[in-house]
């Protein structure tokens, strides 16, 4: 399994939307995908109609004690036209995850890593977590093999991303923990925008992580107001409107993501 943390450093940068839309597209390409909700806000769960208070869903925070087989907690998500062997599952959390902050810190932020180790039948895990660097997002980062950054082209977003890069550098230096930045995905923006072109050049020219430039995905997602509304239908855009321009954007991104994993961190099998 290759585990990808989708992160940036602040809210509203397209992290949850990217996980929710890339997951089904990877499944359509024949990959066994696990989406991991590790954010007490619960937006990923809501996107797929998993209610915060549903008593029939086993939550990530219930798995922390180690007495429940994590594989029994994964919720199967229906995707039309799934590629051969492909599947999509969701490992959900709820607002109760907030109460686990001190617990995960005491256990050296290794709980999610331990939980994901049991999913030996998954090709790719997409981890959604808090934007800020907290004990919760630290635990999510420790479980990841690589990090995908999502952002709109803007100075505040760039500052937030720079902060997360600094956190990863510190983890690498102080805890000897290795992680591969997969690159930056620009979201909700016109490919012809001047700002996006400028930030693409900046990431390509500047030493952004360990003295190396950050990869910038050729794919990007265009602005579409319905993307924010589709979760009320308990579906992300790629399931609600698969013929839309934004669904096509995420389809192109998912294909490039697989190529990027193969190039930088080992292809999922």
Supply the key terms:
269 residues, alpha/beta, Rossmann fold, eight-stranded mixed β-sheet, 11 helices, 8 strands, 16% strand, globular
Task: Characterise the protein shown here.
The protein is an alpha/beta fold and 269 residues long. The protein has one domain: Rossmann fold, CATH 3.40.50. It has 11 helices and 8 strands. The protein has helices at residues 15-28, 43-47, 60-63, 101-106, 111-116, 135-142, 155-174, 194-205, 226-229, 237-240, 245-264; strands at residues 2-7, 32-38, 75-76, 87-91, 124-129, 146-151, 180-186, 216-220. It has an 8-stranded mixed sheet, sandwiched between helices. Strand 6, helix 7 (155-174) and strand 7 (180-186) form a beta-alpha-beta unit. Helix 1 (15-28) packs across helix 11 (245-264). The N and C termini lie close together (8 Å). The mean pLDDT is 89.
CATH superfamily: P-loop containing nucleotide triphosphate hydrolases
**Helical proportion, percent range:** 25-40%
Overall mean confidence score, pLDDT: 89
Instruction: Note the beta-strand portion.
Output: 15-25%
Structural class: alpha/beta
């Amino acid at each position: 399994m290759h585990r990808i943390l989708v992160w940036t450093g602040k809210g509203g940068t397209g992290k949850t939307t990217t996980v929710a839309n890339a997951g089904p597209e990877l499944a359509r390409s024949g990959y066994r995908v696990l989406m991991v909700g590790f954010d007490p806000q619960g937006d990923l769960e809501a996107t797929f109609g998993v209610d915060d208070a549903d008593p029939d869903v086993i939550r990530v925070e219930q798995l922390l004690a180690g007495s429940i087989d994590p594989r029994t907690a994964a919720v199967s998500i229906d995707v039309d036209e799934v590629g051969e062997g492909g599947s999509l599952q969701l490992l959900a959390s709820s607002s109760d995850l907030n109460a686990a902050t001190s617990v995960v810190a005491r256990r050296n932020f290794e709980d999610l890593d331990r939980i994901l180790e049991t999913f030996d039948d998954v090709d790719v895990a997409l981890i959604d977590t808090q934007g800020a660097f907290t004990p919760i997002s630290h635990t999510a980062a420790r479980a990841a093999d690589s990090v995908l950054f999502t952002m709109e082209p803007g100075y505040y977003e760039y500052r937030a991303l720079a902060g997360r890069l600094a956190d990863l550098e510190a983890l690498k230096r102080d805890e000897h923990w290795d992680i591969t930045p997969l690159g930056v995905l620009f979201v909700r923006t016109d490919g012809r925008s001047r700002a996006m072109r400028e930030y693409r050049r900046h990431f390509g020219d500047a030493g952004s992580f360990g003295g190396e430039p950050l990869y910038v995905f050729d794919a990007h997602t265009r602005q579409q107001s319905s993307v924010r509304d589709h979760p009320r239908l308990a579906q992300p855009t790629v399931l609600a409107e698969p013929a839309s321009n934004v669904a096509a954007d995420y389809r192109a991104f998912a294909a490039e993501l697989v190529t990027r994993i193969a190039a930088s961190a080992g292809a999922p099998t």
